[in-house]
Amino acid sequence: MLAKFRPLMATAAKARAPPAVTASTAAAAAVEREEHVHYKHTDACHQLRWTAKESYEYMYARPWSRVVDFYAELVRAGAGAAGLAKLFGKDEKDYTLFTAGENYLTPSEKTTVTTSSKDRGGRWERVTFKVVISYHGGSFDGWQKQPGLNTVQGLVEKHLGQFVDERKAKQLEARSLPIEGCAVVAGRTDKGVTALQQVCSFYTWRKDVKSGDIKDAINEAAPDKLKPLHVSEVPREFHPNFSAKWRRYMYIFPLDEDANLILGEAHSSKILENSEHNIKPQSFDVAKVDKILKTLAGKTLSYKMFARDTQASRSVGPPTECFMFHSRAAVAKLHYANEDYKEGMMVMCVELVANRFLRKMVRVLVATAIREAAAGAGDDALLNLMEATDRRATAPPAPPEGLCLIDVGYEDFTKQRCFIVD
If you read the UniProt record, what top EC class would you report for this enzyme, in one word (predicted)? Predict the structure, then answer.
């Protein structure tokens, strides 16, 4: 019987077999892959634009350890966002942590909330705390709790476990889980990213827990690396992410030690005139980066080309749209308490404020703005890239060591608290 079907099996095997790959087919495929290694820009300065590899190498060939040390000093001092004021010659008192009233709701919303939650039981009886913390990115593997990694969330929740109510503690024990609290955050940060005024919340049904108790517990978690700046009891409706109206980030980029390498616009235009030689610039003009970034302010745009690790279902439409309140760049000088760094270091500071940010969006924006400024592109370079169809049109993300979440706002945004202003 088997012999009867062998001819049919052989025929089926031939039908399923893939066609032989000829040398010409392989060569064509290789050429096609080579053509799509980098996005094909068609503007006048496309020959001067760094490739993805060149941009990556330029970004990472910086003295990032000095920026990491600077952030470590800010966290250790526990001044929060006010610690950055010295960079721009401003008074720290004007940038202290705003905690008066916890005004994340309008008066009308507060009235509605008070009426709707009155005389309710169940979850409405639990106590919610708003926790503002500062942590050093170089000391942790990011915010989100992950098995086997030293994360901020994992450490915070571990020390919040002592405030969990008895019922939840028994449930965790029954499931052989550690007794930990649950911390909801305003926005997760990647490994290496520092936060000066990150906001998270914690709730419990215990009525004896005080704000000071929570602050003391978190303060013992990782001294000098993780600091609770402020803890307060807030209404049940408070959500650190959904209640937030804006987020503010700062990116500190070390500049070349030789100031002559920081090219001005005149030098960039000179290179453009000799573009047939394809001599790519080795640095950029900070003022040009500022002009490029300023075009984003006051607009609602889709930043899908500047996002990374974003699910396909969230790559189109409103999920990728962000409103940029403020986007500027300026030169500053880092100063250290360490005697080895008495002279300080020249850096470029990029300040971005938006209602929301996509994954790695800030780092891609910074890297792409630097690349476009070095190539001598127009001020609308980033706006033009919004309509690209391939994310390879933008530069690879800048190193996470330079990024810092300054603060999260629950009141209407005002430029008075920004560091880089005209």
Answer: isomerase
